[in-house]
Amino acid sequence: MKSLKLLSAILIIGVFFSSCSSVFQDDFRNEISLEEVVSRYDLWYVDYHRTIGNRDIPYVSKAFTLSFLNGILYANNNIVDIGFTGNGLGIDVGVYNTFNGFLETRHDLYGRNDFEVSIISNNEISLYNYRQNVTYFLVGYQVNTFDYDKLFYENIEYFLQEYEAWEKVDTRGGIPNAFDAENYLQFTPKNITTFYSSQDPFGTQIANINWSYVGGYEIFDVAGYEDLKILTLNYEGGDIKEFELSVINDGEISLYNVNSKTTYNFVGRNFELIRKGKNTKKSTNENVWNNNRKRTKIIRKIKERRH
Questions:
Q1: Which structural domain range is residue 254 located in?
Q2: Co-location of 53 and 120 in the same domain
Q3: Domain boundary at 82, 117, 146, which?
Q4: DSSP string, 172-231
Q5: What is the number of other CB atoms lying within 10 angstroms of the CB of residue 264?
Q6: Measured in Å, how far apart are the chain's first and last C-alpha atoms?
Q7: How many CB atoms lie within 10 A of CB 11?
Q8: 125 in Cβ contact with 135 (< 8 Å)
Q9: Predicted TM-score of the model (pTM)
Q10: Same domain? 94 vs 158
Q11: Does 90 share its domain with 138?
Q12: Residue-level pLDDT at 178
């Protein structure tokens, strides 16, 4: 992060808080406009876990990335297919303008919201909305340099929720154990703690799956690893299963059972597309699925790798 002198200077000269809509880069030699600041990167990753404030702007809390290009506001509301949807920018969700030092946005569903913009570093800005008293932190990337691994692993709970079910497609190694019989998993968007599982046979229609087992789950960071998580499934009956969780691609995950030393691959079924704030739903189980998913701040515990 740049020194506080830069931020203080920006505040003093009223870059974002007066009628002047220009800002200064950190060398104080090249004056650029607010439009140039917000459009200098193709994608702004919404680093939601750094958000300050308890209230929110709905379209921002649903978005993994935002883009401000030629007056059009774009958002990637899904992790699945990110990098492909809208040539990487996501979908058109509204319009924006830079006027009187403010970033003015008008979302197609949620209407107008204005933000004060502050430069944090060369590729980081913050957006402050005074009505909701909330500050979001955005990290800039070009499409061809975007850190997709970071996106998947920092938001792994939401990636798991984007499929209505995960179907086991492969089992390798290890000793026989009770989890061998579980063919489907579900992580619901109603919260980030509940999971369901089923022993229904392969090929069962998702709408017909009998979710016989339920419990709580937790995902941990792994000390020394950026591309690995630990998933614990805590069944209501008291049984606890621990897995090393790896993302293979945006439709497949690997679970390594630490105790049995078995590796399971699961493929996502029934992708839940979130458009401009409401899902384009394929699910018929309204008691389980939630139309209004938005992110919450996640502070994970850290575990040492046992394997």
A1: 154-303
A2: yes
A3: 146
A4: ESS---GGGG--EEEE-TT-SSEEEEE-PPTT--GGG----EEEEEEEEEETTEEEEEEE
A5: 23
A6: 36
A7: 12
A8: no
A9: 0.82
A10: no
A11: yes
A12: 93
* 223 and 105, same domain (yes or no): no
User: Which amino acid, 12?
Assistant: I
For the domain that residue 245 is a member of, what is the CATH number? Answer: 2.40.128
Distance CA 94, CA 71 (A): 9
| CB within 8 Å of 25: residues ≥ 6 apart | 31, 32
Q: Is 64 within 8 Å of 46 (Cβ atoms)?
A: yes
The answer to whether 262 touches 173, Cβ cutoff 8 Å, is yes
**Residue 26 confidence (pLDDT):** 45
Backbone angles phi, psi at 242, to 5 degrees: -120, 135
Per-residue pLDDT of the chain (307 residues; tens, 9 = 90+): 333 333 434 343 343 333 334 454 444 445 789 999 999 999 999 999 999 998 999 999 999 999 999 999 999 999 999 999 999 999 999 999 998 889 999 999 999 999 999 999 999 999 999 999 999 999 999 999 999 999 999 999 999 999 999 999 999 999 999 999 999 999 988 778 899 999 999 999 999 999 999 999 999 999 999 999 999 999 988 899 999 999 999 999 999 999 999 999 999 999 877 655 544 444 334 333 445 667 788 889 999 998 6
Task: Give me the amino acid identity at 240.
Answer: I
Q: How far is CA 184 from CA 56, 151, 261, in A?
A: 34, 25, 19
Q: Which amino acid is at 44?
A: W
If asked whether residues 133 and 218 sit together in one domain, one would say no
Residue 100's Cβ-side half-sphere holds a number of Cα atoms within 13 Å equal to 4
What is the distance between the alpha carbons of residues 74 and 276, in angstroms, rounded to a whole number? 10
Of 56, 58, 96, 57, the C-alpha closest to 74 is 96
Which residue(s) pair with 172 in the sheet? 263
Residues 162 and 291 grouped into a single domain: yes
pLDDT reported for residue 2: 38
Beta-bridged to residue 263, according to DSSP, are: 172, 256
162 and 77 in one domain? no
From residue 303, give the alpha-carbon distance in Å to each of 29, 52, 70, 306.
46, 26, 45, 9
